[in-house]
Design a protein that fits this description.
The structure holds two protein chains of two kinds. By secondary structure, chain A is an alpha+beta fold. Chain A contains four helices and six strands, in the order ααββββββαα. Helices cover about 35% and strands about 35% of the residues of chain A. In chain B, the strands form three sheets. A seven-stranded mixed sheet of chain B has the order 10-9-8-7-11-12-15, with helices on both faces. In chain B, strands 4-3-6-1-2-5 form a six-stranded antiparallel sheet. In chain B, a hairpin with a 2-residue loop joins strand 1 and strand 2. The chains are: A alpha+beta, B alpha/beta. The structure holds flavin-adenine dinucleotide and FE2/S2 (inorganic) cluster. The site of FE2/S2 (inorganic) cluster (FES) has 12 residues of chain B, from loops.
């Protein structure tokens, strides 16, 4: 499936990118589709792609034992996930599963980091967005933990 | 003619209905025997004879004056007793007290409301008010989180709000059960879902202190300015009249100067999230 600049402009994650920067993403991305109960990746899998949810429903969680999945949250359209793909050791910290037919943008992580080296402005902008995603996830998890402690 | 009535004497009010909202939250419908009105966000002292009184923000529309709804979470002595009451008994009301939501300041704006737990009670009253002035608003978005699906109060409210022009309502739970197919995560995760023009917006936060803190931080990160964020503060109270000092937060009497403050007004207070 071909991706266009217009497609990306409709996705919240890409709100403040220029057309030239969006072209970089188009050159290193593909669209992937998943059915209900498809697991995009498991906790501890090695990740090679960063994903952005385009449409559908995804649950995210951790496993405490084989087959025992704990659902921690859901992802919203336009949200970035699988950020571990750009940080060594590239191992996923959670599993992600589709709970309805879902479309994601899969960005090749190796090619993306290569683009960061070539284009610092693009790299800084994207890494800032990834850092913000991680910061939000951390703060939401703290909030959730404090709620559970007072349950 | 001078009114010699003692300021602490409540108005009698008949309890006409009790609605179970969740395992720990009930709504009490009371009909005051005297004229009684309030502004959205103001609070009242509701009393049970021989037991005591406690402050609550009415959850009903301020436009309806013949009856009043108060949604009460069971937390201690007075509220546990209230949860045992049956329709027919007489209760007492004093108030209304404090400064509610300055809805005129919301005219021409997008209003984002972030709520958690029993904080939806005052928010419901605000939503009724905003619905009545929706021609003067750009849009209203409610993001609400409860701990579990069973803890979510006013469930039919969400469908109703989503059917009103200019209104959007989302809810999430911290911990889902088998039947829950909606969003999972704390209330702030819903902020990833919404589209809002922050520059032309105000945000209202109401809920447990943990949610108020994390919610305010996220709003600031999103780009809200300190004076665009309205917080409804709950501090232990006694007189409700700015006389006893129980509710003091820095230079403010929360009962008299609040309970609604902008974050800008109270951000330097070390007691803010306690
Ligand atoms: C302006 C205002 C509006 C409020 N609106 C609502 C509402 O709409 N619905 C609702 O369920 N509750 C509301 N509250 C909280 C409610 O007043 C308390 O839950 C109630 O006073 C507890 O009384 P109690 O005798 O049952 O508990 P207590 O036996 O006195 O105490 C039980 C526990 O509740 C805590 N607590 C006591 N008073 C307060 C208080 N004022 N605020 C926070 N925690 C308290 C105590 O620290 C203790 O941990 C509001 C409080 C304020 C100040
Ligand atoms: S409750 Fe007495 S001064 Fe505020």
């Amino acid at each position: 499936m071909k991706i266009t600049i217009e497609d990306l402009k409709n996705v919240r994650f890409f709100d403040d990118y220029t057309d030239d920067q969006l072209k970089i993403f188009i050159g290193i991305s593909s669209i992937k589709e998943f059915k209900v109960k498809d697991v995009l990746f498991e906790q501890y899998d090695e990740l090679k792609e960063i994903y952005i949810l385009l449409s559908g429903c995804l649950s995210l969680g951790i496993s405490i034992a084989k087959e025992k999945r704990i659902r921690l949250g859901t992802l919203e359209d336009g949200q970035l996930f699988s950020w571990s793909a750009v940080f060594s050791p590239y191992i996923s910290t959670a599993w992600v599963m589709a709970t309805c037919p879902t479309k994601v943008l899969a960005i090749d992580a190796k090619k993306l980091t290569h683009e960061f080296e070539k284009n610092c402005e693009f790299g800084f902008k994207t890494m800032s967005k990834i850092a913000q995603t991680i910061s939000h996830r951390l703060s939401d998890t703290r909030f959730q933990l404090m709620n559970q402690l007072t349950l | 003619m001078q009114d010699n009535r003692n300021i602490y004497t409540p108005i009698r009010a008949r309890l006409t209905d009790v609605i179970e909202e969740s395992p720990s939250i009930k709504t009490f419908v009371v009909v005051p025997e005297d004229k009684f009105s309030f502004k959205t966000g103001q609070f009242i002292e509701l009393s049970v004879d021989g037991v005591g009184e406690a402050p609550f923000t009415p959850s009903s529309s301020p436009l309806i004056t013949e009856k009043l709804e108060v949604t009460v979470m069971k937390t201690g002595y007075v509220t546990e007793y209230m949860h045992m009451l049956k329709p027919g008994v007489l209760m007492g009301i004093r108030g209304p007290y404090g400064r509610g939501y300055p809805v005129e300041a919301f005219f021409g704006k997008e209003v984002l409301i972030l709520g958690g737990g029993c904080g939806l009670a005052p928010i419901r009253s605000l939503l009724y008010t905003l619905e009545s002035i929706k021609d003067k608003l750009v849009k209203v978005i409610l993001c609400y989180g409860s701990k579990t699906p069973a803890d979510c109060i006013y469930k039919p409210l969400f469908d109703r709000l989503n059917s009103i022009e200019k209104f959007e309502a989302y809810r999430t739970v911290d911990k889902a059960d088998e039947d829950w197919d909606g969003s999972v995560g704390v209330a702030t995760t819903l902020l990833n879902k919404i589209k809002i023009n922050i520059k032309n917006s105000v945000a209202v936060v109401c809920g447990p202190p943990i949610m108020m803190k994390f919610g305010t931080i996220r709003l600031l990160e999103m780009g809200y300015k300190d004076d665009q964020i309205y917080l409804s503060m709950e501090k232990n109270m006694s007189c409700g009249l700015g006389k006893c000092g129980h509710c003091m937060m820095g230079e403010f009497f929360v009962c008299r100067d609040g309970p609604v403050f902008t974050y800008d007004e109270i951000k330097h207070n070390p007691e803010i999230w306690k």
